């Protein structure tokens, strides 16, 4: 029996752990209090031995022998050689006939699985292969906090400086469930007096003791953010100096958020496009060079934030005003009372929240999936970001910051794509500033390309995890698309309803059977600089192999070995950590991790606009304007409308005991949450004749699901919060599974209701109805879930 210090890789929290191994078996995983995650932990981490030694683990490669859609796929055990040869030759054939982009590579989420270990290599394989297309749930997951935030900040939203913050704003983010290390850090901040504001239709987690819990009606967040921002502006509760100096708020823009007024000007390094700012004292417009970050004539003492102007521009009179004023005007459309009627948050709370943000700083903030799954996700994220700009705290002590992390080599392999190839990504032409800009494809575009060859044919899918039939909204198109593929290879620890459509399923080693590198846990200076090599503590179960090993083997067979260190994973690992200056052997000798502080010249801080003094934050987004979107947040009717038939707002949230559609077969976890549940307010339930524990049917215009009613007054009265991800049975507890059209939340959502700029689907705020089921759903053949896959 021995113990190994490590971290749990099952979710974003990456809690420090100590694993106990006995006779080749993982017997216990417990928290490591000395790790930067400070002893955070959860039931899933504790259940890791059950996951690792589950008798449902895939043990050998399985080849389909019967047609897709047949209830019995007729899985045949094949050797790895046969499996890898099959994969390489079928992917090769698709490329020969239809081009490399006809093969899509899939990947599950690194925030809710351990696929982070292979994430970079999987992308590298796609790119070396010549396909830009990676099917990845980013648009509903991390896009808006990590990438769409660049539309405002030029970077991700960064991390809250928990140690110094005066006030935390959590918007559609419940770390008590989704990121225990953050919940712990936030709780510590609370103990030393930091204030907390939570915007969530449910009073979940830390919201229970927040200074302000804003019970927003699901899907109406953008308007709420504008209303709070409006109060701050009206009362002067914002950092005017920051807006003047650090944002493009003073830039003059044609009225109604048209183009910025620009002129060609000569700068120290040549002719460049300059923007104009109004100097109120001298009553004249002054040119400003946005690239150089300086005024091209005498800088105004106080650049105007408000001014209604008519300027002569290119010989024409042009009506314009500072971008900030136009933002203020848009906010003023939502005075607290009006916003209260739309969002369900009382007007006095909107005002109090504005006051708190002004008085209790420095303010830090975080938003996540509550925002990322809305029909207006990009504009909503922008509205929250602009509200945050008003506090003036981005990048400063106690605000949101980018702490340096250990530098790793970039292995994603974008440089391997031929010129023009990335632009071929499915969805690029519709969403040039969205996930396709990084090669990430959503399930709508994937299904469309398979079924209709638009914009070109897709014939192959090689997926590393993921279960889109339970996690994506367009199941009616996805099922036929999966059936229509020439080749679908799925690599996973477990069989799942999506993998059941594969031609070949490959067994993946669990994270306790393989290595992984973590470059930081996004917690303060110490946590961000924490570099840790997670070592395998037991051998791969059965014939399973790590994702990375599968990638490296396939690369060799595809003739791409030279891009993958000729299959030498150890060399690859050395390459990955080389920029840290720390030898692999040193990392191995420190399984608990070590802090890697970078000298300033190593720091990539200057690459981050938030830290580069000359770069201004984009209060007004020219990138969105160029992409045909609103450069200042607007919410003109894109939100989903309620109706008499569907008068309630449907939403969803993560479970403490499961990640998405995983883990439901693990007895200790399933025992804590036995059936798909739906949270309802008692008042709403009473009106519908629903009692606690009743089965209810939730219905939308496109589908329905069954769930068990859980009455709670900790939810906004007309929001319905149902669980997702239910399919798997748990024989150990004699609990059933569910067919994909039975208790599948995502059957309730139309794939077409999506954010224009990111493609995020409207899984939050969807119009629905709820009725009591007259009869309890009897266990039926299809309740076995796992075996009834029909095409
Ligand atoms: N236990 C567990 N942890 C996980 C995961 C998991 O599946 N299980 N998944 C990981 C992944 S991939 C992700 S992306 C993160 C996500 O982490 P979070 O964003 O924290 O997760 P969610 O629970 O989806 O959403 C957060 C909150 O948004 C609220 N919400 C719902 N609708 C709305 C709305 O319309 N507006 C607002 N303002 N709030 C709303 C929900 O009630 C919920 O409390 O969690 C990661 N961690
Ligand atoms: N209704 C609703 N739908 C949602 C969400 C929601 O909040 N509500 N959240 C969305 C979000 S934020 C996300 S990120 C997506 C997630 O969507 P998916 O990526 O489809 O996630 P999972 O359902 O967790 O499926 C993960 C699969 O990958 C496998 N797996 C786990 N670890 C590994 C590994 O290391 N390697 C390999 N090869 N496989 C592995 C698991 O066994 C499982 O089969 O779901 C989205 N869907
Ligand atoms: S929160 Fe749970 S699942 Fe996530 S890393 Fe920590 S122990 Fe693992
Ligand atoms: Mo996610």
TrEMBL record:
<feature type="domain" description="4Fe-4S Mo/W bis-MGD-type">
    <location>
        <begin position="1"/>
        <end position="56"/>
    </location>
</feature>
<dbReference type="InterPro" id="IPR009010">
    <property type="entry name" value="Asp_de-COase-like_dom_sf"/>
</dbReference>
<dbReference type="GO" id="GO:0051536">
    <property type="term" value="F:iron-sulfur cluster binding"/>
</dbReference>
<feature type="region of interest" description="Disordered">
    <location>
        <begin position="593"/>
        <end position="612"/>
    </location>
</feature>
<keyword id="KW-0408">Iron</keyword>
<dbReference type="GO" id="GO:0043546">
    <property type="term" value="F:molybdopterin cofactor binding"/>
</dbReference>
<dbReference type="Pfam" id="PF01568">
    <property type="entry name" value="Molydop_binding"/>
</dbReference>
<comment type="similarity">
    <text>Belongs to the prokaryotic molybdopterin-containing oxidoreductase family.</text>
</comment>
<keyword id="KW-0411">Iron-sulfur</keyword>
<dbReference type="InterPro" id="IPR006963">
    <property type="entry name" value="Mopterin_OxRdtase_4Fe-4S_dom"/>
</dbReference>
<dbReference type="Pfam" id="PF00384">
    <property type="entry name" value="Molybdopterin"/>
</dbReference>
<dbReference type="Pfam" id="PF04879">
    <property type="entry name" value="Molybdop_Fe4S4"/>
</dbReference>
<dbReference type="GO" id="GO:0018818">
    <property type="term" value="F:acetylene hydratase activity"/>
</dbReference>
<keyword id="KW-0479">Metal-binding</keyword>
<dbReference type="GO" id="GO:0046872">
    <property type="term" value="F:metal ion binding"/>
</dbReference>
<dbReference type="InterPro" id="IPR006656">
    <property type="entry name" value="Mopterin_OxRdtase"/>
</dbReference>
<dbReference type="InterPro" id="IPR037949">
    <property type="entry name" value="MopB_CT_Acetylene-hydratase"/>
</dbReference>
<dbReference type="InterPro" id="IPR006657">
    <property type="entry name" value="MoPterin_dinucl-bd_dom"/>
</dbReference>
<protein>
    <recommendedName>
        <fullName>4Fe-4S Mo/W bis-MGD-type domain-containing protein</fullName>
    </recommendedName>
</protein>
<dbReference type="GO" id="GO:0016491">
    <property type="term" value="F:oxidoreductase activity"/>
</dbReference>
<dbReference type="InterPro" id="IPR050612">
    <property type="entry name" value="Prok_Mopterin_Oxidored"/>
</dbReference>
């Amino acid at each position: 029996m021995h113990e190994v210090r490590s971290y749990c890789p099952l979710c974003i929290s990456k809690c420090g752990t100590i694993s106990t191994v006995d006779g080749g078996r993982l017997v216990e995983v417990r928290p490591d209090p000395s790790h930067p995650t400070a002893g955070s932990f959860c039931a899933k981490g504790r259940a890791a031995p059950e996951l690792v030694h589950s008798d449902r683990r895939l043990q050998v490669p399985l080849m389909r022998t019967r047609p897709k859609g047949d209830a019995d796929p007729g899985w045949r055990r094949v050797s790895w050689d046969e499996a890898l040869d099959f994969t390489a030759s079928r992917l090769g054939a698709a490329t020969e006939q239809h081009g490399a982009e006809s093969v899509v590579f899939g990947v599950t989420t690194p925030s809710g699985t351990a696929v982070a270990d292979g994430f970079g290599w999987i992308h590298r394989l796609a790119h070396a292969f010549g396909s830009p297309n990676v099917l990845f749930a980013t648009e509903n997951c991390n896009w808006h906090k990590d990438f769409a935030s660049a539309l405002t900040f030029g970077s991700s939203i960064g991390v809250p400086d928990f140690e110094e913050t005066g006030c935390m704003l959590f918007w559609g983010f419940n770390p008590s469930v989704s990121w225990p290390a953050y919940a712990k850090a936030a709780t510590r901040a609370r103990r030393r007096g930091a204030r907390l504001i939570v915007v969530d239709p449910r009073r979940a987690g830390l919201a229970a003791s927040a200074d302000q819990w804003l019970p927003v009606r699901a899907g109406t967040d953008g308007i709420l953010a504008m209303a709070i921002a409006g109060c701050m502006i009206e009362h002067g509760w914002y950092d005017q100096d920051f807006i003047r100096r650090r944002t493009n708020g003073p830039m003059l823009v044609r009225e109604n958020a048209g183009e910025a007024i620009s002129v060609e000007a000569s700068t120290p390094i040549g002719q460049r496009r300059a923007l104009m700012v109004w100097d109120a004292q001298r009553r004249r417009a002054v040119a400003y060079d946005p690239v150089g970050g300086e005024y091209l004539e005498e800088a105004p003492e106080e650049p105007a934030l408000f001014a209604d102007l008519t300027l002569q521009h290119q010989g024409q009179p042009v009506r314009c005003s500072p971008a900030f004023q136009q933002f203020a005007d848009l906010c003023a459309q939502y005075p607290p009372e009006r916003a209260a009627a739309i969002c369900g948050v009382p007007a006095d709370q909107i005002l109090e929240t504005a006051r708190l943000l002004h008085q209790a700083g420095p303010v830090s903030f975080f938003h996540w999936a509550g925002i990322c799954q809305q029909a207006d996700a990009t504009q909503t994220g922008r509205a929250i970001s602009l509200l945050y700009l008003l506090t003036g705290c981005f990048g400063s002590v106690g605000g949101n910051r980018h702490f340096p992390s250990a530098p790793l080599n970039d292995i994603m392999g974008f440089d391997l794509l031929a010129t023009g190839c990335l632009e071929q990504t499915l969805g690029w032409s519709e969403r040039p500033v969205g996930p396709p800009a990084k090669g990430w494809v959503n399930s709508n575009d994937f299904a469309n390309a398979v079924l209709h060859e638009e914009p070109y044919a897709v014939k192959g899918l090689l997926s590393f995890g993921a279960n889109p039939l339970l996690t994506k909204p367009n199941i009616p198109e996805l099922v036929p698309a999966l059936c229509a593929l020439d080749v679908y290879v799925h690599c996973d620890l477990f069989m799942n309803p999506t993998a059941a459509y594969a031609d070949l399923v490959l067994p993946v080693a669990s994270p306790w059977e393989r290595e992984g590198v973590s470059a930081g846990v996004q917690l303060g200076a110490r946590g961000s600089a924490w570099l840790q090599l997670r070592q395998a503590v037991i051998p791969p179960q059965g014939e399973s192999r790590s994702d990375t090993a599968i990638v490296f083997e396939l690369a060799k067979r595809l003739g791409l070995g030279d891009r993958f260190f000729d299959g030498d994973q150890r060399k690859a690992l050395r390459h990955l950590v080389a920029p840290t200056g720390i030898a692999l052997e040193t990392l191995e000798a420190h399984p608990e991790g070590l802090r890697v502080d970078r000298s300033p010249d190593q720091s990539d801080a200057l690459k981050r606009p938030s830290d580069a003094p000359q770069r201004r934050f984009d209060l007004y987004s020219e990138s969105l304007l160029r992409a045909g979107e609103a450069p200042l947040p607007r919410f003109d009717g894109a939100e989903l409308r309620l109706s008499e038939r569907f008068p309630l707002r449907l939403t969803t949230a993560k479970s403490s005991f499961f990640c998405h559609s995983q883990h439901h077969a693990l007895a200790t976890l399933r025992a804590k949450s036995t059936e798909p549940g739906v949270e309802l307010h008692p008042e709403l339930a009473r009106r519908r004749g629903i009692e606690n524990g009743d089965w209810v049917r939730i219905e939308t215009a496109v589908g329905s699901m069954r769930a068990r009613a859980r009455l709670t007054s900790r939810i906004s009265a007309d929001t319905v919060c149902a669980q997702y991800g239910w399919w798997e049975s748990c024989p150990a507890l004699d609990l059933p599974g569910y067919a994909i059209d039975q208790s599948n939340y995502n059957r309730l959502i139309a794939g077409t209701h999506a954010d224009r700029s990111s493609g995020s689907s409207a899984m939050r705020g969807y119009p629905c109805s709820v009725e009591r089921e007259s009869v309890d759903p009897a266990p039926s053949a299809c309740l076995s879930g796992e075996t009834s896959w029909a095409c």
